[in-house]
Design brief:
Blueprint lengths: L10 E3 L4 H15 L2 E6 L9 H9 E9 L1 E2 L2 E2 L5 E8 L5 H6 L14 E2 L2 E2 L12 E5 L5 E6 L4 E5 H8 L1
Antiparallel strand pairs: 1-11, 2-6, 2-9, 3-6, 4-5, 7-8, 9-10, 10-11
Amino acid sequence: MFNFDLNVKNCNLFEYNGHEDYLVLIDALQKCSEYVVIVQVHGEIDENDKHILKAKQSMELIEKRSVTEHCGTKTLGEANEKYVFKRIDGNADFFKYLKGYNSFFDSDKLPKIKGNRNYQPFIKQNFGIDDICFLDENKKVLFFTVTHEHMSFIDNDFLNRVFH
């Protein structure tokens, strides 16, 4: 079983400013990531999902399993499928694929606030509702999304290397 530290205390909420920042982020993730984890959430499980298929074309699938907890979120009752991919010889095809998006999120599809607590409807974003996580060679989380909630998080050290 592929294990990595779900403790993401060194990660903070991250909001990039437009497509240029998104491209800088993807370039940095391409240079620093050894593993890519895609989690299909809330019962939206499909092995023919375009993100999964693209990842399979350019990376090695090293694990696929059902999970109830992954970076930044836990689910109650719904099945989630986690796919862990390992890059092969620095292949950049998946990262080129990601550059085809303006970002992981649609800026006009923001979650709504309901009452005194966050109400997060399952809003399909540019990246659908799949969550994605990037890890370095030591399995340290560099960046991850909780896509349907329009949230992304970045490791503080990685942030400082990339944007400062």
